[in-house]
Amino acid sequence: MPVIALTSRLLCLALLSAPGAAFAANAALSLDEAKAAFRLAIDAEISKQASKQSPSLLVATMLESMKIAAVQGCQPLDAAQTTCILRMEGSIGDNYTALRFRRDGAQWRVVEEKDIDAPQPTLARAQELVREHLAHLGGQEQDPKAAAQFKEFAATLTVTALESCKLERDSDAVECHAELDTPSQGKGSKPLRFRLQGADWSLLPE
Hints:
Elements: H1 9-16, H2 31-50, H3 57-65, E1 67-76, E2 81-89, E3 95-104, E4 107-110, H4 123-140, H5 144-156, E5 158-167, E6 173-182, E7 186-197, E8 200-204
Antiparallel strand pairs: 1-2, 2-3, 3-4, 5-6, 6-7, 7-8
Helix pairs in contact: 2-3, 4-5
């Protein structure tokens, strides 16, 4: 079987039907905390717009309409900062976005950066999720040959890299380009989709 076998029909079908699994972390903001931090950022931007020689009423109205509807999940960057996936509501429609927050004393503040990287699972957690799912499918497989292949993948598959992780704006999914490897089949790659719910990562079907 050639190197590309890691993205073969068997493995692809396995990953497409992945169930959820959990990962513990301690970095979530409450909805009220996120709303308060976002309100501070919006008020500062509206004040900045108002100070211009030709303030835009449209921009101010759009900013005023933007609200955090839900904190989907958060992942820490360090002791003071965390990145959260948020469901937003506004005059131009609803979507999901990633914002970074920094603790400032007793409150949180939005970190104003142009491009915020979406949270992503660690390599170890991504590998664990994939292996757990392959093991589950192997246990359900009736064909002995396919079951043996699932069992081999579940025991030996390594996720060597997660690259170009992007948050899907119309959903809460984070899609990453995953580099995979097994001793028997060699290296391969495929897109994997994950969801961060609270502090729990899961592997998503396509």
